[in-house]
Design a protein that fits this description.
Belongs to the short-chain dehydrogenases/reductases (SDR) family. This is NADP-retinol dehydrogenase. Its EC number is 1.1.1.300. It is a single chain. By secondary structure, this protein is an alpha/beta fold. The protein is 45% helix and 12% strand. A hairpin with a 2-residue loop joins strand 7 and strand 8. The structure holds NADP nicotinamide-adenine-dinucleotide phosphate and 2-acetamido-2-deoxy-beta-D-glucopyranose (2 copies). One 2-acetamido-2-deoxy-beta-D-glucopyranose binds next to helix 10.
Length: 329
């Protein structure tokens, strides 16, 4: 009796002591590539905090010129200084990018294309989760707008540069949460019904569908694309939900650190010989299973066309190498 009571009292303490071991058990997957990146150019969106910051730091450590694409330039500059200090790499640059505004995305791309000859690694990492219903400058629902459409436009604008720099890679940071996602074409902007948690899941499903469609269309171009589930990571992502903040706080000893969360993005960006797996989804540095929805090519094509339409991009900007010509809708 006393023994059980003592054990119960000791349990939190024991858990606390064992937390580092438990965390490393739950967060397998380390990018072991030793590749160095002198002369390579990388862009990481949302690089001022969380997973993006750690991803950018490691790319800088390996000698790449790294662009931190951030909506808050001041926050970005602080992080750039920190990364420069820690890695000794001075080529860490901050550029303004607000994915909730297509004007900002176009301005970012324009400046980048003017000032850089190459782009070898594009990490579409920025993301929002569980925002109250809100819209981007262009009237898109926030999750769809930032997580999916914003990155779609950005990738579109930078694609020529990626092509010229091939072999090059695009990594899309998605989530396990895509399993709960559905693409409701009649309610893409959440106007008929909206639930913030599900809106996140839908946008993360869109990330995977896009990765696959892009991979199909880029076959043979020298650009390969990957989508990633970083794991459950202790970051600022939960900032919009008090409940999620609380859950994250309780489990904060056991979930991945941002540095651990960056491993799969880095794995996909750096591992040699990964090209044959273009279009796949990765978790813990392994190919991971995606939902049936995420494998549906019909949905992927339609979402591609609808996204082009919403963004005012010609639907045939990237035709499949040998595919038939298609018209909108
Ligand atoms: N944490 C997890 O457990 C988890 C799990 C699965 C997937 N993910 C994915 O991992 C990625 C990174 O998330 P994180 O966990 O590192 O979250 P985070 O700490 O909240 O970082 C998100 C980043 O995105 C930026 N961002 C948000 N809205 C933006 C906009 N409109 N324009 C430009 N940048 C914007 C944020 O900038 P500000 O600081 O200025 O807001 C921040 O730099 C996300 O795509 C997320 O969906 C995370
Ligand atoms: C992800 O993948 C494709 C190919 O890179 C791209 O077109 C799309 O816009 C990217 N962004 C997201 C977050 O889906
Ligand atoms: C793909 O999705 C469409 C529309 O939701 C559905 O009608 C079709 O049966 C699905 N195809 C596959 C192969 O699951």
């Amino acid at each position: 009796m006393v023994g059980v009571l003592l054990l119960l009292l000791l349990l939190p303490f024991l858990l606390y002591i064992a937390a580092p071991q438990i965390r490393s058990m739950l967060s397998s997957g380390v990018c072991t590539s030793t590749i160095q990146l002198p002369g390579k150019v990388a862009v990481v969106t949302g690089a001022n905090t969380g997973i993006g910051k750690e991803t950018a730091k490691e790319l800088a450590r390996r000698g790449a010129r790294v662009y931190l694409a951030c909506r808050d330039v001041q926050k970005g500059e602080l992080v750039a200084r920190e990364i420069q200090m820690m890695t000794g790499n001075q080529q860490v640059l901050v550029r303004k990018l607000d994915l909730a505004d297509t004007k900002s995305i176009r301005a970012f791309a324009k400046r980048f294309l003017e000032e850089e000859k190459h782009l070898h690694i594009l990490i579409n990492n920025a993301g929002v989760m569980m925002c109250p219903y809100s819209k981007t400058a262009d009237g898109f629902e926030m999750h769809m707008g930032v997580n999916h459409l914003g990155h779609f436009l950005l990738t579109h604008l930078l694609l020529e540069k990626l092509k010229e720099s091939a072999p090059s890679r695009v990594v899309n940071v998605s989530s396990l949460a895509h399993h709960l996602g559905r693409i409701h074409f009649h309610n893409l902007q959440g106007e008929k019904f909206y639930q913030s948690g599900l809106a996140y899941c839908h946008s993360k499903l869109a990330n995977i569908l896009f990765t696959q469609e892009l991979a199909r269309r880029l076959k043979g171009s020298g650009i390969t694309v990957y989508s990633v589930h970083p794991g459950t990571v202790n970051s600022e992502l939960v900032r919009h939900s008090a409940l999620m903040r609380w859950i994250w706080w309780i489990f904060s000893f056991f979930i991945k650190t941002p540095q651990q969360g960056a491993q799969t993005s880095l794995y996909c960006a750096l591992t040699e010989g990964l090209e044959v797996l273009s279009g796949n989804h990765f978790s813990d540095c392994h190919v991971a299973w995606v939902s049936a929805q995420a494998r549906n090519e019909t949905v992927a094509r339609r979402l591609w066309d609808v996204s082009c339409d919403l963004l005012g991009i010609p639907v045939d900007w990237l035709m499949m190498a040998a595919g038939p010509k298609r018209s909108l809708k």
